[in-house]
Amino acid sequence: MAIIQAFQAGEFLNSVLSLFCAFVLGTLIGAERQYRQRTAGLRTNVLVAVGAAAFTDLGMRIGHADGAIRIVAYVVSGVGFLGAGVIMKEGMNVRGLNTAATLWCSAAVGALSGVDLAAEAALVTAAVLAGNTLLRPLVNAINRIPIDERDAEATYEVRATTDTDRLSEVRDLLVERLEAAHYPVSEVDVEERGEDEVEVVATLVSTAIEPEEIDAVIARLGAAEGIRRATWVVRTTD
């Protein structure tokens, strides 16, 4: 009987609208993540948004504004732990930061929906989508801009091992392939590795490196005639 007595049609309809708003907006954010095949895709972002909305709505129903404020504080910290689970470190690279930030924003969208601020939730959703789509060309353009060597925190080197009598040929090939991939070379050194073996070291102009792109260049270099081994390394400065 307590369940029946606690049921209020007006409050129930309000909860339905809040959760529906969170579901729709979470779907918009998640669809973009799913399209790009990110770790946290459509379902994850929808569940985060709906969950945040449900908890916030519960706080509103029980404790009104004070209750919602306390719930939102726990939602923010709880999603922080969830976001940490999608961040992965692979060698020198850290992946998943943008995905974790998107989950955090999905929780914000859900919390806004839960306290009946649908317009604000839609605004945040638009901002998230703009950040994940419209800013990508700008990010790529900035990453391609060479920076002052004195301000660089990392130096990238591409190394190719070859026979001594093919040094000149491999050095030219290395520079050609790198510059064709838009990774200009600042200097080329040669290190002896034995009586008949040398290593050509190409230091790249200070710029951002896309691991997938440079890996593809290295793979093609490794398959080129005359090159025994090819690899790339990053050296950080304090």
Automatic annotation (TrEMBL):
Tell me which residues make up the MgtC/SapB/SrpB/YhiD N-terminal domain. 19-139
Q: Which gene encodes it?
A: sapB
Name its species: Methylobacterium aquaticum
Gene3D superfamilies given for it?
Answer: 3.30.70.260
Which Pfam families does this chain map to?
Answer: MgtC, MgtC_SapB_C
Q: Which GO terms describe its molecular function?
A: methyltransferase activity
Function text = Virulence factor required for growth in low Mg(2+) medium and for intramacrophage survival. May be involved in regulating membrane potential by activating Na(+)/K(+)-ATPase.
> What are the GO cellular component annotations?
plasma membrane
This protein's name: Protein MgtC
